[in-house]
Amino acid sequence: MNKTPWYMSAYFYQIYPRSFMDGNGDGYGDFIGITQKLDYLKSLGIDCIWIQPIYPSPMADDGYDISDFENVDPRFGTLDEFKQLIDAVHEHGMKIIMDLVLNHCSDQHPWFQAARKDRNSKYRDYFVWSDTDQKYLETRIIFTDTQKSNWTWDEVAGQYFWHRFYPQQPDLNYDNPEVREKMKNVMRNWMKLGIDGFRADAVPYLFERDGMNNENLPETHNYLKECRKLMDEEFPGSILLCEANMWPKEVRPYFADGDEFQLGFHFPLMPRIFMSLGKQNASSLVKILKDTPEIPQDCQWCTFLRNHDELTLEMVTEEDRQWMWSFYAPDPEMRKNLGIRRRLWPLLDNDPKKVALAYSMMLTMPGSPVFYYGDEIGMGDDIRLYDRNGVRTLMQWDDTKNGGFSPADKTCMPVIDDPVYGYKKINVAAQEKDPESHLNMIRSLMLTRKASDALCRGKFEWLVTDDENVPVLAYIRESEYDKVWVIQNMTDSDQDFIMDLPEGKYYDLNHPDYEISGGTGITVKLAPRAFYWLRKK
Ligand code: NOJ
Fold it and tell me: Which residue, of 277, 327, 398, 410, has the greatest Cβ tally within 10 A?
């Protein structure tokens, strides 16, 4: 019997709730809207929805600045409606996780308001204060475009406060036992409502210590282990997904001995998928996978192509960053912090072959894939919008007003309406009807992978030996019951890939009509950007 936990081979789908679907017609995405679209998500084969922050928030960082950890923002609906969404997700046989933002809150949170006003308030110590901004200078700045320091002077408080993100997001002080306990209670409350776990935001930054870079400190790991213990003991079967934008060897400790996070995003893999496609050479991908340590049994990486943030280039060398910027973000407006604020399809020239190849890589490499809403239909971006909003525009459901997102005259975000990516052309309804559509192409790849035990959870073995020159990226995935040979042409030209394939006849999982015979030193002929997922007949 297969005892692999569900999340080891799951599909996650990331919903940005503001822009997904407006169910009550006020122009703002909401719980009712998401509930209406669950059949669609089910039809994609999604196992788990990750809903981005829904807490009350002044929206200085799109909901990652939380002013009340115990409630939902009324713009999304009521707590009852959220509960109905959770129940409906479960009725659809799916799961739902939400963002847990431990590191910081909003400067409008009553804790911060009380803290800044009164040095003697117990809340003062809920935050990190200093009389000088010359402390913790070894700590890097994350929002490089807008922040010059991790300290901001607060007039009311008469001191500087510490923040790793915007100044509207003061960091909580995890040296304070009450903070530690209160945030555990936040977890408890949402778990009791029935969700299945959390995507834990910005976890490397919880504690600060003099003379350190203040990332991944042992104290932070200890606290996160306590959180996991709580989840296991009080809510068995729940999951924690780690957001640590770090090198694989630094993310590895977040899995600990299998007693911290079950899941962790593989950040460095993502830009290397784009680099491989752009350079027509998968060398950087091979190297990062070779540098990725083993993780404990029942732990899993999460792979992704894009998300709601800029395509982060924090985990590439300076040289590669410059290359990525000049290739994928020639217009400086496309750049944000250390990344690129564009969506998948515009990045890949709106070319279905390149996009399919990107999905092939994500779907066949080890990890549970996380899909970003709208990428499955080929949505575009709008770089004229502020910050990262350009990749957070309205989901395009059909060709009616606002792309079917809302009947309202005014919506919370603009809908994309250009001739190439606009909702009249790119929308779910039209693509459902067209067997050749982006949606059906991606859905088909997803369903094919889902049906392969080897691709979902098999072990990984390289078929390429050269680390420098990798025009064809090839590997084997193998489980007890299943074995698949994955061969992918990164280039714009025909490629002959010579390999050993045990005797027998093979077919391509995506095109069962394709047949090739095994043998020693056989040649697999690949058209430009073509890929095969081969299985023995
Ligand atoms: C990571 C989130 O993905 C990002 O959107 C946010 O700005 C920061 N964490 C701060 O919470």
Answer: 277
Of 441, 526, 488, give the one whose Cα is nearest residue 277. 488
pTM here is: 0.98
Helix (H) or strand (E) segment spanning residue 187: helix 177-193
Q: Nearest 10 degrees: CA dihedral of 384, 386, 388, 394? A: -70
Name 100's bridge partners. Answer: 200
**Any residues with Cβ below 6 Å from ligand 1, and which?**
61, 64, 101, 165, 201-202, 243, 308-309
| Order of strands across the sheet that contains 511-526 | 459-462, 472-478, 483-489, 531-536, 495-508, 511-526
Identify the residue whose C-alpha is closest to ligand 1 atom 4. 309
- 201 is annotated as an active-site residue: yes
Distance of CA 32 from the midpoint of ligand 1 (Å): 25
Burial class (CB in 10 A: 0-12, 13-18, 19+), 242: buried
- The catalytically annotated residue of 81, 196, 215, 243 is 243
Active site includes 243?
yes
Q: Which two tokens stand for residue 72?
A: 């939902």
Residue partners of 230: CB distance under 8 A and separation at least 6: 184, 187, 188
User: Amino acid letter at 222?
Assistant: N
Q: What burial letters (b/e) apply to 104-140, b meaning 16+ CB within 10 Å?
A: bbbbbbebbbebbeeeeeebbbbbbbeeeeebbeebe
Residues 446, 440: Cα–Cα separation, whole Å: 10
Closest CA relative to residue 482, chosen from 454, 518, 510: 454
Closest C-alpha to ligand 1, atom 6? 64
Nearest to 232 by CA among 206, 258, 203, 193: 258
Kindly state the average pLDDT of the residues 360-383: 98
Plot region of 91 (φ>0 → left; ψ -120 to 50 → alpha; else → beta): alpha
Length of the chain measured in residues: 537
Ligand 1 centroid – CA 202 distance (Å): 7
Q: Of all helices (H) and strands (E), which one includes residue 271?
A: helix 269-279
Distance CA 299, CA 480 (A): 19
Give me ligand 1 centre to Cα 499, in Å. 44
Mean pLDDT of 31-58: 98
Q: If you measure from the C-alpha of residue 537 to the centroid of ligand 1, how many angstroms do you get, rounded to a whole number? A: 46
